[in-house]
Amino acid sequence: MASKKYPRLKTYRLIDQLLALRIAYPKAQCKISKGVLYWNGVITPSPLSQTYEVNMKYKLMRRPCVTVRGENLKRIDDPNFPHKYNINKEKKLVEMCLYLSPDFTSQMLLADTVIPWAVEWLYHYEIWLATGEWCGGGKHPQLNKGVKNKAAS
Description:
By secondary structure, this protein is an alpha+beta fold. It is about 20% helix and about 20% strand.
């Protein structure tokens, strides 16, 4: 009996990710430095939306850290601010909670997954601002209160 061979999924290198991001978002800035991919772009989730500065840091085999910053962030002091990991009130910076761990792997392009998820997060954030209800679904992980995430600092 022959054994089935399954194709090995390709892990995208940082340069592959960078090229895909530059093609999909030509106005954004993207670079690789010391084994970390940095992406900085401006996102407007809908024609009626505010514009937001979004930053992403990604290291292979790690969870991408995606943050939104700027004066357009409202209700940052609200204790019920939804789907976030960390908030830095002084810098007006929020680390977005975009997905659960198995939803993104290094076999996926950031340009096709994480950045569109950030756009969707911002869209639902604006609905939350207007209604007080998060309509984006999903689960928010419970973080250990004593653990500080260095990515948003």
